[in-house]
Write a structure and sequence with these properties.
about 400 residues; mainly alpha
Length: about 400
C-alpha cells in the first residue's frame, strides 16, 4: 500500500503537481480548452489568413538570404556590409532587367510552341508504341488498353495545355506590378534586404523576449533550424541550377528539340524531391520520339545518367549530410503537405517537416530528462540531452 502511494506521488510530481487534485484539475482544464476552442474557432481564422498571406514572401526572403549571404560575407571583408548588400541588389536588378528583355520572351515563345504541340506529340508517341506492339504477340492485349485511355489522355492533355498556357502567358508579365505574385516578388526582396543588412538584429530582438531560463534551449533550436533551412533552401536552388545547366548542355549536344525549355523545367521541378524531375521527363520523351526512336534512346540514357550523377555527386556536396531524411519519409511528406497546402506544401514541405521534427525531438528529449529525474531508478533513457551535436548524432 505504501509502495503504491509512493508511485502515485511520484506520478503527480512527474506531471508537475503536488496532490491528486492537480491531475483532476489538469484534465478539466484540457477539456475546457478544447470545448472553448470549438466555440470560438472563428476568431483564429484571421490569423490563418495572415499566416497564409505572409508565408510566401517570408519563404522567398529566406531563399534570397541563404543564397546571397555567403557572397555578401565575402564582399564585407573588403567593404562595409551595407554597401555589399546594395551592390549585390543592383547587380541582381541588372540581370533581371536583361532577362526580361531577352530571356523571358524567348522562353515564352518556346513554351507556347511546346504546349500547342504537346497533344500531337503524345498522340504520335502512342502511335509509335502501337506500331511496335502490333509486331508482337501482345498486340490484342494492348488494343483495349489504348482504347480505354484515349478519352482520358485527351482530357488530361487539354487540361495541361490550358493550365500551362495560362502559366506561360503570365511569364511575360511576371515583372509587372499587376501580377498576382506582386506581393511576394516585391516584399520578399525587401525582407531579405533587412535580413542581409543586419542578420543578428531580429535574432537579438527575439532573444530579449525569451525568458533567461529558456534562452539556452532557444539558441540551440534556432541554430539547428537555421542550419536545416539553410542546407535545404540554398542546396535545392544550387542543385536545381546545376541540374538545369547540365541538361541544357546535354540536350543541345544530342540535338533535342525544345532543349532550353525542357532543361529549365527539369531544373525548376527538381525543387520537388524525386517526383519533380520526372514531370518533365515524359514531355521530353514524347519530343524525342517525334524525332526518331534513336533520339528517344539517347534522351533516356542522358536523362538517367545525369540524374544518377546529380544524385550521387551534386546533391551530397551542396546539401551536406545534415538533412538526413529517408526517401520514404520524403514521399509521405510530399503527399501529406501537398494535400494540406497545395503547391506551396509540395515545394516547402521538406523544410516545414524538418522544423516540426526538430520541435518534436526537442520535446521528447525534455520528456526523457524529466522521466530520468523521477523514474531513473527503474532504468534511464539514453540520448536525453539536447544540443546541435546530440541532435545530429542521434
Amino acid at each position: 500500500m505504501e509502495k503504491n502511494n509512493k508511485e502515485d506521488s511520484r506520478l503527480i510530481q512527474f506531471l508537475g503537481g503536488k496532490t491528486s487534485y492537480y491531475i483532476l484539475g489538469l484534465l478539466i482544464l484540457i477539456a475546457l480548452v478544447i470545448y472553448f476552442y470549438q466555440q470560438i474557432a472563428f476568431i483564429f481564422k484571421p490569423f490563418v489568413v495572415i499566416f497564409v498571406t505572409t508565408l510566401p514572401p517570408v519563404l522567398f526572403a529566406l531563399i534570397l538570404y541563404y543564397l546571397l549571404d555567403p557572397l555578401i560575407r565575402r564582399l564585407s571583408r573588403k567593404i562595409s556590409r551595407n554597401l555589399s548588400v546594395i551592390i549585390v541588389y543592383v547587380l541582381i536588378l541588372l540581370l533581371v532587367g536583361l532577362g526580361s528583355v531577352w530571356l523571358i520572351p524567348f522562353l515564352e515563345q518556346q513554351a507556347k510552341t511546346l504546349v500547342e504541340s504537346l497533344p500531337d506529340l503524345f498522340h504520335d508517341f502512342q502511335q509509335t508504341i502501337r506500331q511496335f506492339l502490333d509486331q508482337t504477340p501482345f498486340a490484342s492485349t494492348f488494343d483495349q488498353f489504348f482504347l480505354s485511355i484515349d478519352d482520358l489522355t485527351s482530357h488530361v492533355t487539354s487540361f495541361v495545355g490550358d493550365y500551362w498556357k495560362s502559366g506561360v502567358q503570365s511569364i511575360g508579365t511576371i515583372f509587372s506590378a499587376v501580377t498576382t505574385t506582386f506581393i511576394t516578388l516585391f516584399t520578399g526582396p525587401i525582407i531579405a534586404f533587412f535580413l542581409l543588412k543586419n542578420p543578428q538584429a531580429f535574432y537579438r530582438s527575439v532573444l530579449r523576449i525569451i525568458p533567461p531560463a529558456f534562452r539556452t534551449d532557444f539558441k540551440s533550436l534556432t541554430k539547428i533550424a537555421n542550419q536545416q533551412l539553410g542546407a535545404f533552401l540554398k542546396g535545392q536552388i544550387i542543385a536545381s541550377f546545376i541540374l538545369g545547366a547540365v541538361y541544357w548542355v546535354t540536350f543541345l549536344l544530342i540535338g533535342l528539340e525544345f532543349a532550353s525549355i525542357l532543361a529549365i523545367a527539369a531544373g525548376l521541378l527538381c525543387i520537388i524531391p524525386y517526383i519533380g524531375p520526372f514531370i518533365a521527363f515524359f514531355p521530353g520523351l514524347f519530343i524525342a520520339f517525334q524525332d526518331s526512336p534513336f533520339m528517344a534512346v539517347k534522351f533516356v540514357l542522358v536523362w538517367f545518367i545525369v540524374q544518377l550523377l546529380h544524385g550521387d555527386l551534386v546533391v551530397p556536396r551542396v546539401m551536406g549530410d545534415r538533412l538526413q531524411i529517408h526517401p520514404i519519409t520524403i514521399l509521405i511528406v510530399l503527399l501529406v503537405m501537398g494535400d494540406l497546402m497545395g503547391l506551396m506544401g509540395v515545394i516547402f514541405g521538406i523544410p516545414i517537416y524538418t522544423l516540426i521534427k526538430l520541435f518534436i525531438v526537442f520535446l521528447f528529449r525534455k520528456f526523457k530528462q524529466r522521466y530520468n529525474k523521477y523514474y531513473g531508478d527503474s532504468g534511464v533513457y539514453q540520448q536525453a540531452d539536447f544540443s546541435e551535436k546530440d541532435y545530429f548524432d542521434q
